[in-house]
TrEMBL record:
CC per GO annotation: membrane
Top EC class, one word: transferase
Keyword rRNA processing in record: no
GO molecular function: ATP binding; ATP-dependent diacylglycerol kinase activity
Family: Belongs to the eukaryotic diacylglycerol kinase family.
One of the GO BP terms on file: phospholipase C-activating G protein-coupled receptor signaling pathway
Domain DAGKc as annotated: residue spans: 277-416
Ranges where the record places region Disordered: 186-245
Protein's name according to its UniProt entry: Diacylglycerol kinase
SUPFAM superfamilies: NAD kinase/diacylglycerol kinase-like
EC number: 2.7.1.107
Organism: Triticum turgidum subsp. durum (Durum wheat)
Amino acid sequence: MYRMALPSWSDISAYLSEYWSVIAATVIFALVGGVTIYYTINQLNKNISLSLMKAIRARAKKYKKLKDKVPAASHIWRKELGSRSKGLKCCVCLKSVSPPQYLGGTIHECDICGATAHPSCSGNAHKDCKCVSMVGLDLGPLKRLILSPLCVKELHRTGATGLFSSITSGANELASTVRETIRIRSKRYKKDIGPSQPESPGTAEPQSDTDGDSEGSNTTAKRDDHVNGKLHEVHQSTESEKDKQFIADNATSRPNGQHEMSHAQNNQKYEIVDVPSDSRPLLVFINKRSGAQSGDSLRQRLQILLNPLQVFELGKHQGPEVGLSLFRKVPHFKILVCGGDGTAGWVLDAIEKQKFEAPPPVAILPAGTGNDLARVLSWGGGLGVVEKRGGLFSVLKDVEHAAVTVLDRWKITIKDNQGKLMCSPKFMNNYFGVGCDAKVALDIHNLREENPERFYSQFMNKVLYAKEGAKNIMDNMFYYFPWEVKLEIDGSNIEIPQDAEGILVANIRSYMGGVDLWKNEDSVSDTFQPQSMHDKTLEVVSFTGMLHLGRLQVGLSRAQRLAQGHHIKIEITTPMPIQVDGEPWSQEPCTIEVSHHAQAFMLKRVSEEPISHAASIMADILENAENSGTISASQKSALLQEIASRLL
């Protein structure tokens, strides 16, 4: 009877199992519900953030006048490791960007203002970069050089062009996302199948400050930039003679110059309006192939010091025409070229094609190997000098107070024995060589194409140059040079010395990285005039061989003066190496004529001499006179040329 009153063990077990099942189901339901609620709240928060951004944009459209004064400034995104993002938040969804979703993940950080965003959110970021934050504020000590954001107006294109642009932008964004996913998976796959070399994010700091246009480097950081909402991948690039040839090809006369100008204007996104009369905005061109891959570092620093719209990179798909087209209506602006002599010549050619009534003056930030043109304009022989003078800020101050001078530009035509042109005319700014010096330049050119990894520093360039020169000393291939070349200057035949193995036609007082061939101090003892880069006169000297060139570089010898003149004619009877501003090639028998082409306005760094300060002040006075209508732009240009010829 007692046992019947007590429940059986099986009943108790069934009851307990049912009880725990209910508890487990309740716990699971609570967890799932909590996760669902948490996820829903996060999504709502993100949607609310995006809705607020859209509402702000919609409200901003109602105030077109304000939008004209305060332009939208797109962030310039670069990739950074997620491990560096501790404590940072996304500027779009307002969520923390750390830790990343996966090991080794990246975030997007703006090059200009430092804003951060998730890679998936950066495309939706509002265009509120540095420029907007500058509105109404003092632009600082460089305010005359900085383009105020109040002067920049965003162009709105409608119709089929706008629709096509929107479709293209969306397709590019989708394609960039797909590429990023594939790249990440590829990285994971490489880690799974074996070791790989680590990839350094961001911008690699240059190892050398004084490497140049003709200089190669085989090591550079790969970098992805999310520029104006689009992700651009910049592949590994090496400075080679092919790059120099590319610059030279772009610097020569091209028949479609007007087409390129109109194309740049059609693709223009912004317009510069209402620039103050006392403003002198600086337009910057950077050749990232110059300076041992220091182009990325220069671009970032200049974008911080100036308005990002003032800084343009030169490449195979973008020449100086884009920046010149944007600044075409700016009354008084200056240009800074960050590169070597080849880059400077490229920009000067582009300025000439624009046909400015008063062409802008050009300063040079020396990033080449020789930097001969930068040397004669007192900007120095390399980036190392820039750092010694106080960095880029001091350089920009020097550009603001620089004196305007002029540079003669010369046209070189090459004709065959029948008088027909063998190629398009070339334009010379520095010098033109025939014979032994061109032979070494050509050998270095060929060696660089075969082994670009050997040209990784300026010092190694000089070592290889000396090595090739030593080889040519033993060859003695220019023994008959005086009988294979005929020289005529201003209609008079000039006798070439019998021991000569090369001649050089010089426009400036710097050769091979600072060698003064003409030696103006020697002009007192003979009938020759001092050398000047704006007297429309060329100087011709001869070399006795490679050993003579080596002694010239160390200051143990002097070049032999031959003549001065305005029109030079050289007849070559056998194949001969030739170089124009460092661009070498092997030339078949021909007749070469050098004649004055034009004069370009350049900026010379002001020294401590009172004359230099006077020239700088007079340039400002002439610009103010043009603003007031006292003189015209053409009259100002003529007066600047006269001042430069008399004072500088």
